[in-house]
Design goal:
The protein has one domain: Spore Coat Polysaccharide Biosynthesis Protein SpsA, Chain A, CATH 3.90.550. It is α/β, with parallel strands linked by helices. 29% of the residues lie in helices and 25% in strands. The protein is globular, with a radius of gyration of 18 Å. The strands form 3 sheets. Strands 5-4-1-6-10-7-11 form a 7-stranded mixed sheet, sandwiched between helices.
């Protein structure tokens, strides 16, 4: 808890994954991918409760083995087209109805970010709680020349960016490392997104997001470099 705000962390870990079957519990450096996020959350003093929202029995078993609480997500809330927000609202409703637990903030921790630090989660919670904002997300800084493609033509977001990377104005892209949202905003809008979206920049390994097999190879290498 921070500033009297009860905070729930939800780790959304559905069973279906087209790109990498069993991705959320696939071994990374000898441990299930999901385990890293559970342990990160349990090390954050501002979090009052951490749950894994899943529709998969094997994922639930792994979650329990590593100290997580499980909220069984209905199949209709776990399809490819189901937004994460549905899982969050379901978890909030479930805890309120079954355990009379009510929360002011909800934190989303995707299990595909094994390098996030507990300190980063704490910072995100505190920055939102200390502000008037409704929602917060993490960003990754990039010096790539980003734009759109129209009729085969490249249209930079920032026209006239210098050719050399080190001379460019930085841009920022969404990182799935941490999201924090005030529960009333989530319930009122059905979205984590806010018109005035507070942000925290994460750098280096913390921005690693595992979605493809190549990402697992990179993550394995990084784990070895860290001696894990």
């Amino acid at each position: 808890m921070y500033k009297g705000l009860r905070t729930l962390a939800v780790i959304p870990a559905r069973g279906g994954s087209k790109e990498i079957p069993g991705k959320n519990i696939r071994p990374l450096a000898g441990r299930p991918l999901l385990a890293y996020t559970i342990e990160q959350a349990l090390a954050v003093p501002e979090l009052d409760v951490t749950v894994v929202s899943t529709d998969d029995g094997e994922i639930a078993d792994v979650a329990l083995r590593f100290g997580g609480r499980v909220v069984e997500r209905p199949a209709e809330l776990a399809g490819d087209e189901a937004p994460t927000e549905w899982a969050l609202i379901h978890a909030l409703d479930h805890l309120e109805q079954t355990a009379e637990e009510v929360f002011d903030l909800v934190v989303v921790l995707e299990p595909t970010s094994p390098f996030r630090r507990p300190e980063t989660i704490s910072r995100c919670i505190r920055e939102l709680a200390d502000s008037m904002a409704n929602s917060l997300l993490t960003l990754e800084e990039t010096y790539k020349n980003i734009g759109t493609r129209e009729n085969g033509l490249f249209r930079p977001v920032i026209p006239g960016q210098p050719r050399r990377r080190q001379d460019r104005q930085p841009l920022f892209v969404e990182s799935s490392t941490v999201y924090v949202c005030r529960v009333p905003h989530l319930r009122d809008t059905g979205w984590l997104v806010s018109d005035d979206w507070l942000s925290v920049v994460v750098r280096g390994n913390e921005a690693v997001d595992i979605n493809e097999l190549a990402d697992f190879v990179l993550a394995e290498s990084l784990m070895k470099d860290q001696g894990r």
